[in-house]
Amino acid sequence: MVTETAMQARRKAAMTVLAHSDAAGIAECLGAIAVPAHEHLREPENGLVMVRGRIGGDGAPFNLGEATVSRAAVRLATGEVGFGYTLGRDLEKARMIALCDAMVQSHELADAVEANVLAPLRSSMLASRERQAAQAAATRVDFYTMVRGGG
Amino acid sequence: MYVAVKGGERAIENAHRLLAHERRGDRDVAEISLAQISGQLSLGVDRVMTEGSLYDRELAALAIKQARGDLIEAIFLVRAFRATLPRFGATEPVDTGTMQVRRRISSTFKDIPGGQVLGPTFDYTHRLLDPQLAEGSAPEAPVAAEPLAAMPRVTDILGRDGLIEASPQTDDGAPVGDLTREPLSFPADRDLRLQNLARADEGFLLALGYSTQRGYGRSHPFAGEIRFGEVEVEFFAEDAGFTVPLGAIAMTECQMVNQFKGSATEAPCFTRGYGLAFGQSERKTMSMALVDRSLRARELSEEIKAPAQDEEFVMSHSDNVQATGFVEHLKLPHYVDFQSELGLLRKLRAEFFEAAASAEPLQEAAE
């Protein structure tokens, strides 16, 4: 039996991967598994969140500006309720995240979602992060000191 | 007297059709796509997102296309759009210390932990026009084998030795000022000032920041650190009952380190100015940090004598949507106002000439 904290951590980890992936990628992965019967608890909708920063990077919060978001909620026929939140206005992406979140909580479906959806999306997310980090690393300055005089 | 005037509908409709026609440009040239604007005019998109105060690359690209590249018009369009969507709430404050860094430099320490990472920058380019770009190109990105190390903020390093003032703190859940919800009033707290500066016109802040460097409210700044990259954003979702990840937002942060303050009871330490913006917005965040610092004059008991230290002056004139609205409204019909001015002027002139005419004979007599 998974504790509630562990389940929440697992759901957040899955949501992170999904939020970082594009809708086409998620749809392609979902195509590989049998999607269970489900209903919309909250029709996918667009809205805004106010993005906050911190004064000095680590101080009191302030309002930086808004960002578009999409959200949705679904319920599987077996009862699991999933929530989908993502930056941007892609309603279908929010719906698929909610569906995956519900499946992650299902004992029967969690493994299939991990193997067919989350694992491939996670590795492509990490690969793109690594590629970007390697590009940035190529611009790191190596200082050297000019030897003066000498003899 | 108010006189309603009607007419001009057909002229207006045709003007808009002509605008659409001109916007499309030469039909023999391919139409520009949003992906092209977003990917290849990305710093313009970043500016529209920052000053439009809405993070959405595709919408900002659409606004730039619709505005024919007029960025202030595009910012106006984005601001108007945001009013059409409901707000779900506020995110957790982002942690720029965990940024996936694409650029990070410090002008105060050569050997900062994590190193100086130049990233995609115009710095050190020769500013010579490149004719090859006119031909089209497919450059390849450089790649290093060694990964990047962790990058603590420079201000955190200085803070450990007490050499720099700590950032102001509030209790969790304390209200955060929001100028999109309440009208501005003065004096304004730093959270409201930073929100105002984050949305402010880059050119206005650049000029004000420059003015502090030239002596109008001098603050002896160093660019302690500038970093640009992706920051994770999280949001407490009431329906889910926990904080959910939303994805990552590209941001630029500037930590300005300024001359010290101290008192009989406090050891002297460096003071700070802060800048934060969407996308790669380096000039904006540097200017913002300079002006944030100069606007702290009251708090730091500095004499307020320069425009950049006057929060009412700065905050009331920083918004380019408000500014352009008021300046550009001058071209809308003011026929009735002008007619009454004209009538008054005619009357004054008539009185002037009458007085002059009646004074003339007396003058002659005096001679």
Q: Report, as a whole number of angstroms, the end-to-end distance of chain B.
A: 49 Å
**What is the largest interface, and how many residues per chain?**
A-B, 54 and 86 residues
Characterize the quaternary organization of these chains: heterodimer
What percent of residues of chain B adopt helix (DSSP H or I)?
Answer: 40-55%
Strand content of chain A: 25-35%
Main sheet of chain A? 3 strands, antiparallel
User: Average pLDDT of chain B, to the nearest integer?
Assistant: 93
Order of helices and strands of chain A: HHEEEHH
Shape of chain B: globular
The whole-angstrom Rg of chain A is: 21 Å
Q: How many E strands of chain A?
A: 3
Count structural domains of chain B.
2
Biggest sheet of chain B, strands in spatial order?
A: 3-4-5-6
Secondary-structure element series of chain B: HHHEHHEEHHHHEEEHHHH
In spatial order, strands of the major sheet of chain A run 1-2-3
Strand content of chain B: 15-25%
Gross geometry of chain A: extended
Task: Label the structural class of chain B.
Answer: alpha+beta
Number of helices of chain A: 4
Description:
The complex is a heterodimer of chains A (151) and B (367). Chain A has a three-stranded antiparallel beta sheet with strand order 1-2-3. Chain A is an alpha+beta fold. Chain A has a domain at 4-43 and 69-121. In chain A, helix 1 (4-20) crosses helix 4 (110-137), helix 2 (23-30) packs across helix 3 (91-104) and helix 2 (23-30) runs antiparallel to helix 4 (110-137). Chain A contains four helices and three strands, in the order ααβββαα. The termini of chain A are far apart. Chain B is α+β, with helices and mostly antiparallel strands. Chain B has two domains: 9-82, no CATH class; 96-120 and 149-166 and 181-320, no CATH class. Chain B is 41% helix and 16% strand. Chain B has helices at residues 9-24, 34-40, 42-52, 57-66, 71-82, 131-135, 154-160, 190-199, 202-213, 282-294, 311-317, 320-328, 335-366; strands at 54-55, 87-90, 100-105, 222-237, 242-261, 269-278. Chain B is globular, with a radius of gyration of 27 Å. Classes of the chains: A alpha+beta (151), B alpha+beta (367). Strand 1 (38-54) of chain A pairs parallel with strand 2 (87-90) of chain B.
